[in-house]
């Protein structure tokens, strides 16, 4: 029976560990979802586009708020505020597939298709500008001259290929710099002459204007930073759901084995119960008493037979001793007769 149980492949300890791990992951997922929802609630009013679509309208033609179409690379998360300043109000423009879609949404203001006034960015009409090789080389040189860090804004973000034009529209030839000194050196470098924004949100324009960013060392609230944290929680949620799904598959497999194991275990207990009942009936039957008495008598017979065998051996030993003593006596008698003569 134990071999049959082992053949099911069920391991009680492993099954318990799997259930405990599932509970831990589900609790973690619950906390993650709460955190994700909290973060999104902080930026919902800025990044959520709500509208009542006309009948038969294909909602996939509306891509959404530009801020939600890309993500900041983890290694450049500290530049989230700078990216927000670089994009400005364009960050909250609505991306659509073409101008016709925007016209449909704006065609009848009385229908309240849109909840508030919006600016639209048709993907098919976006005109962009990206840093030239000369600007990139000049920016690196300028940053190195003040021992600073400078990266193109486009390099700090990640997005699906279909939205690359949107990202170029938002950030263009802007550079992100670690400090004000780096920003000034980059912006006013003769090979660059492009906008730069520091981590703290200070913006430098080649025309000579300076826009102050954060007055608290870059610690003030940032919509883009919060949105990126929300995206990060979404990724973690997808990953965690994948782990939970795999764990549930393994638990399901163990549950099937557990069913077979439980059936065998129940059968084992039933057989033990039946065996105990039969043993009890046998012990209470007169035949059992006679059988026990016979076994005891047989044991006594074996013991007596063994004793007889031992006595026979002792008898033979004693007989040999008698023969030896008689020979010695006879030998002594012969010697005495010779001495008398």
From TrEMBL:
InterPro entries in UniProt: SMC_hinge, SMC_hinge_sf
Tagged with keyword Coiled coil: yes
Region (Disordered): 195-217
Superkingdom as given in the UniProt entry: Eukaryota
Key words of the record: Coiled coil
Coiled coil location: 15-46, 287-335
Segments forming domain SMC hinge: 60-187
Biological process terms in GO annotation: chromosome organization
A Pfam family annotated for this UniProt entry: SMC_hinge
Molecular function in Gene Ontology: ATP binding
Identification of the protein by name: Structural maintenance of chromosomes protein 2
Any one GO cellular component localisation term in the record: chromosome
């Amino acid at each position: 029976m134990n071999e049959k149980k082992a053949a099911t492949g069920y391991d009680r300890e492993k099954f318990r560990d799997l259930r405990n791990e599932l509970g831990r992951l589900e609790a973690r997922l619950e906390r993650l979802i709460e955190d994700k929802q909290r973060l999104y609630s902080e930026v919902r009013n800025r990044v959520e586009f709500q509208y009542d679509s006309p009948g038969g309208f294909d909602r996939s033609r509306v891509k959404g708020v530009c801020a939600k179409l890309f993500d900041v690379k983890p290694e450049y998360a500290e530049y989230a505020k700078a990216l927000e300043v670089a994009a400005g109000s364009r960050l909250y423009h609505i991306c659509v597939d073409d101008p016709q879609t925007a016209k449909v949404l704006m065609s009848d203001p009385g229908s309240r298709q849109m909840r508030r006034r919006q600016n639209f960015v048709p993907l098919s009409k976006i005109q962009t500008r990206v840093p030239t090789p000369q600007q990139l080389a000049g920016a690196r040189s300028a940053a190195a001259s003040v021992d600073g860090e400078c990266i193109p804004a486009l390099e700090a973000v990640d997005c699906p290929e279909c939205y690359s034009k949107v990202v170029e529209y938002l950030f263009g030839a802007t550079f992100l710099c670690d400090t004000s000194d780096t920003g000034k050196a980059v912006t006013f470098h003769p090979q660059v002459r492009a906008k730069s924004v520091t981590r703290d949100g200070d913006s430098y324009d080649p025309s000579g204007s300076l826009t102050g960013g954060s007055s608290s060392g870059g610690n003030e609230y940032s919509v883009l930073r919060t949105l990126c944290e929300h995206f990060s929680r979404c990724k973690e949620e997808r990953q965690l759901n994948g782990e939970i799904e795999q764990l549930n598959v393994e638990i399901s497999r163990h549950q099937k084995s557990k069913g077979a194991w439980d059936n065998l275990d129940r059968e084992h207990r039933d057989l033990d119960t039946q065996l105990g009942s039969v043993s009890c009936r046998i012990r209470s039957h007169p035949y059992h008493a006679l059988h026990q008495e016979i076994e005891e008598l047989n044991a006594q017979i074996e013991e007596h037979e063994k004793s007889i065998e031992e006595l026979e051996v002792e008898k033979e030993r004693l007989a040999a001793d008698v023969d030896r003593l008689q020979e010695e006596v006879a030998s002594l008698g012969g010697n005495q007769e010779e001495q008398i003569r």
